[in-house]
Amino acid sequence: MVVENLLRLGIARFLCIPLSVTVVLSSSLPFQTPLTSSAAASLSHHYHQRRRLSSGYSMNSQQLSQSQSPPPPVAKKVEHKMEMFGDVRIDNYYWLRDDSRTNPEVLSYLKEENEYTDSIMSGTKKLEEQLFAEIRGRIKEDDVSAPLRKGPYYYYEKTLEGKEYVQHCRRLIPENQKVPSVYDTMPTGPEAPQEHVILDENIKAQQHGYYSIGAFKVSPNSKLVAYAEDTKGNEIYTVYVIDAETQAPIGEPLVGLTPYVQWAGDNALVYITMDEILRPDKAWLHVLGEDQSKDTCLYVEKDDMFSLDLYASESKKYLFVASESKNTRFNFYLDVSKPEEGLKVLTPRVDGIDTTVSHRGDHFFIKRRSGQFFNSEVVACPVDNTSSTTVLLPHRESVKIQEIQLFSDNLVSYEREDGLPKIIVYRLPPTGEPLTSLQDGQAVSFFDPVYSVESSYSEFSSSILRFTYSSLKTPRSVYDYDMKAGISVLKKIDPVLGSFDSTHYVTERRWAPASDGTLIPISIVYRKDLVKLDGSDPLLLYGYGSYEYCLDPSFSSSRLSLLDRGFIYVIAHIRGGGEMGRPWYENGKFLKKKNTFTDFIACAEYLIENKFCSKERLCIEGRSAGGLLIGAVLNMRPDLFKAAVAGVPFVDVLTTMLDPTIPLTTSEWEEWGDPRKEEFYFYMKSYSPVDDVKAQNYPHILVTAGLNDPRVMYSEPSKFVAKMRDMKTDDNILLFKCELGAGHFSKSGRFEKLQEDAFTYIFILKALNMTNELKF
């Protein structure tokens, strides 16, 4: 459920989760998460004068001395003139864009940038390896995820010591557990049903530098598995169908797909493909054993502002194909018992109306958002009369309905109030009885002041709700909640090896006043026995603020390497995200996008004023659209920060949004605005980081990218760094690291991701003159 939600959100320049992420037992989590999710980014730099390392940089024995510092790569200038509305822009680095990713000159330049980064960081390579060993040492390498009941089996993912990827496994549910209970545990002893490995990603990944599973779907009869595989990081998938017991292939693989694939009965699949700009635009029905060329096209979305989504009802009786823009969403349904009848309209296309649908008994259930009901309402309609609706949960101005999850006897509403997620459980009347407004919902209780909660797959016919919980000091925890008894039972908490003790850490919520008086929620964590709170503590501030995404506070075992060295870690829940409801998002997009940036700056100023840090101890980080945030605030207030990390940053906003041939551009005019209109053109230009680089001092900066990134083209961070090298007036370090074999979510292996965390942290520690203080 979490994975599918992220993938749906992923049709965007989307990766909001910090680089320092919790390693979970699923390489199919595209972002981490990431979000996760992957793409292409190549970097180029222009530099007219040799710059030495800043005197503020620590130059101990583990680092390069000033005389050893090589000059950064120099990107040539090739004038490219762009004119619109009487405004002329010169892009000297436009040549760095190569859609084929094969231009020898561009690739050579990217390799020079990587070599330069390696050279600058070579003095702390040993510290980086020690830090990586420390981070990896917290991971229980041989582990098993919380087993999940599906039909007659427990399904789970298993990691092995030293292996990068997971095994997908299952065991039969024993006879004495046929009736589900929150207290069930999967037997593993010699008398237990035998473990069966359905798919070992480690074996599949051996022939590839990058490997990611985007979907893993078991057929209704539990005999077959369809899985979607990406071996480049470009998010173009191949779907294989195999026998769950023997791993024998069933038919030929389906190529050129999105990860959206669902079973339509036991002998057919529905899947989604993309057009030339990687927009999911066609839904197909595939009968097992038939050639892909004979598949039936169920629907074509011709409007390039819209993309397709695909998911199954919890009842498994219907599949839903949705077509959505950033402001409108409508739905079709497919009866899986009669796939030959094709799609039927469930909710019509109405501009500004966003609907998400599901099914139970003789009713469809619809979460519906509109301009009037901006935080959504929930209604139901009879399957045989979809135009007749009954309101079950009314719209509330202070409570946002994020999603609903259906069971045979219950409706679960995932909501947000005061910036925090909630789970409310409602009892439904027996199937066949009239549905009326739902009352007396039961709230699930949580224990941290700030936290994150995610839905998970749960069996429709049971009264057990599964969800995951985490906070800045609580590792990812899987719970089963008995909806009849109101009891939560912990099924698994991610182990953190070593001396970790959550009671050593403090998490809190603060509110920072923005320039217009709006109070911005911020989430804070630190180790209470190490920080002084007198302005001298180092602090890492993270932000995102786009796509209505809720950047809820979650745990990272990697992050402990900062917290245990006296860092304070803060998340700014700025406008453009969805943490405070739909208006929070709408006040951070279009012609109000600058609120995102000024909110972040206001949070930084609040932290300084309240002695959490000083300018000399403040570092910032953001990824993807969060990288746009970092680029924008660096141009606006470079004096406020000591160091910045911009991961796969969307920084060439104006040029990209003017080019409909670039993936995601047309669908995102409803997010950023259409710069072919004069008002949006000049507003966008005023904050687009590449266009706004100035001759001024900047802090230490690390920029990362992935060559195969389909969400943020590698050329965007390339231009940003090249132009900044040419114009900045300081001697601070500017580094670029481009993964030449990965995409938006960087490398795919779980330990490879930890290595990236270690690299980023060492960069931050260098910038703060702290590497000589490191102890292991």
Task: Kindly summarize this structure in a few lines.
It comes from Arachis duranensis (Wild peanut). With 776 residues, the protein is α+β, with helices and mostly antiparallel strands.
Helix fraction bin: 10-25%
CATH architecture identity of the domain at 102-137 and 505-768: 3-Layer(aba) Sandwich
> Structural class from helices and strands?
alpha+beta
Strand order of the largest sheet: 31-32-34-33-35-36-37-38
What does this structure look like?
- One of its GO terms (biological process) is proteolysis.
- This is Prolyl endopeptidase.
- Keywords: Hydrolase, Protease, Serine protease.
- Its EC number is 3.4.21.-.
- By secondary structure, the protein is α+β, with helices and mostly antiparallel strands.
- Among the domains are: 102-137 and 505-768, Alpha/Beta hydrolase fold, catalytic domain (Rossmann fold, 3-Layer(aba) Sandwich), CATH 3.40.50.1820; 365-400 and 413-496, no CATH class.
- The strands form 8 sheets. Strands 31-32-34-33-35-36-37-38 form an 8-stranded mixed sheet, sandwiched between helices.
- A hairpin with a 2-residue loop joins β24 (410-417) and β25 (420-427).
- α7 packs across α8.
- It is globular and about 70 Å long.
- The relative contact order is 0.15.
Features:
Rossmann fold; 776 residues; 14 helices; 7-stranded antiparallel beta sheet
Write the SSE topology.
Blueprint: H1 2-9, E1 81-84, E2 87-90, H2 104-121, H3 125-136, E3 143-144, E4 148-150, E5 153-159, E6 166-172, E7 196-200, H4 201-204, E8 212-218, E9 224-230, E10 237-243, E11 254-263, E12 268-274, E13 280-287, E14 296-300, E15 307-312, E16 318-324, E17 329-335, E18 344-347, E19 354-360, E20 363-369, E21 377-382, E22 390-393, E23 399-406, E24 410-417, E25 420-427, E26 442-443, E27 452-455, E28 464-470, E29 477-482, E30 487-493, E31 505-513, E32 519-527, E33 539-543, H5 560-563, E34 568-572, H6 582-586, H7 594-609, E35 618-623, H8 625-636, E36 643-647, H9 653-657, H10 669-672, H11 678-687, H12 689-692, E37 700-706, H13 715-727, E38 734-739, H14 750-767
Parallel strand pairs: 33-34, 33-35, 35-36, 36-37, 37-38
Antiparallel strand pairs: 1-2, 3-5, 4-5, 5-6, 6-7, 8-9, 9-10, 10-11, 11-12, 12-13, 13-14, 15-16, 16-17, 17-18, 19-20, 20-21, 21-22, 23-24, 24-25, 25-26, 27-28, 28-29, 29-30, 31-32, 32-34
Helix pairs in contact: 3-14, 7-8
